[in-house]
TrEMBL record:
GO molecular function: ATP binding; ATP hydrolysis activity
ABC transporter domain residues: 19-248
Matching PANTHER family: ALIPHATIC SULFONATES IMPORT ATP-BINDING PROTEIN SSUB 2 (PTHR42788:SF19), TAURINE IMPORT ATP-BINDING PROTEIN-RELATED (PTHR42788)
PROSITE patterns in the cross-refs: ABC_TRANSPORTER_1 (PS00211), ABC_TRANSPORTER_2 (PS50893)
UniProt family annotation: Belongs to the ABC transporter superfamily.
Organism: Bradyrhizobium forestalis
InterPro entries in UniProt: AAA+_ATPase (IPR003593), ABC_transporter-like_ATP-bd (IPR003439), ABC_transporter-like_CS (IPR017871), ABC_transporter_ATP-bind (IPR050166), P-loop_NTPase (IPR027417)
Designated name of the protein: Nitrate/sulfonate/bicarbonate ABC transporter ATP-binding protein
Amino acid sequence: MVESKTPPTVEASLTALAVSLRGVTKTYDSGVMALGPFDLTVRRGEFISLLGPSGCGKSTVLRLIAELSAPSSGTVRVARHEGEVLPGHGIGFVFQEPTLMPWTSVRENVRLPLRLAGVPKAEGRARAEEALASVGLADFADAFPRELSGGMKMRVSLARALVTDPDILLMDEPFAALDEITRFRLNNDLLTLWRSLRKTVIFVTHSVFESVYLSQRVVVMTARPGRIQADIRIETVEPRGEEFRTSAAYSDYCRRVSAALAPSYSGQSTL
Ligand SMILES: Nc1ncnc2c1ncn2[C@@H]1O[C@H](COP(=O)(O)OP(=O)(O)OP(=O)(O)O)[C@@H](O)[C@H]1O
């Protein structure tokens, strides 16, 4: 007998948990207590930003979620999607550096996670091209990384993270090294992608402006060991765009987030 599955209701899928960290601490072998206790709940499809001073444990949180590191205490739970799970356990990771292989094409760079998973070459190439199209680089599959601008390399890195169709996208200061106009463009394109793909996104940034522009929630962390200082919901008319960036509401949110961040810094400007 074939079992029929009832698809989850919209309400259920909106409230389903994607990630949960409970009482998590992390002390590295060096004795540095990086985190905690730290509690965080992220719902499926949410876009949240983690903001905090340098060294407060933002990357550590991402590494714990990706299971690249284990907590010293507490629990980290990540919802897995049903069916096919490719390497990375349903998680895509984008780092500050695009880390592309210089000796091969953009297509092969994007195909790498599928190649490692043993996906047949033809299928892998088709999926890599699809991922490249989703980040606006359909015409650059045969190019080499050295032929691309910094923003384009970051798009390739994003395509590589998306090619396995992960449920959760972890992004560690991906646009920090880019000029402002390129960064704004990538912010807009990332929001468009998020709206169409409905991934859960956990985005690490040092920029108050970027966090408010992109996220539904900005989670502000204390200085090390990182804990939650504030969890601020950004509510505005969707889809957001340039008019939000120049609105009074945007400035108000930036002020609120900045004020929440201020105690974590000693006398430094947070904007
Ligand atoms: N593998 C490691 N071994 C020892 N200490 C580490 C390790 N990784 C990170 N740390 C330390 O743990 C603390 C938190 O590091 P983490 O990279 O998570 O902070 P962060 O908030 O992402 O910093 P930044 O904003 O500067 O990138 C820092 O003091 C860092 O030096």
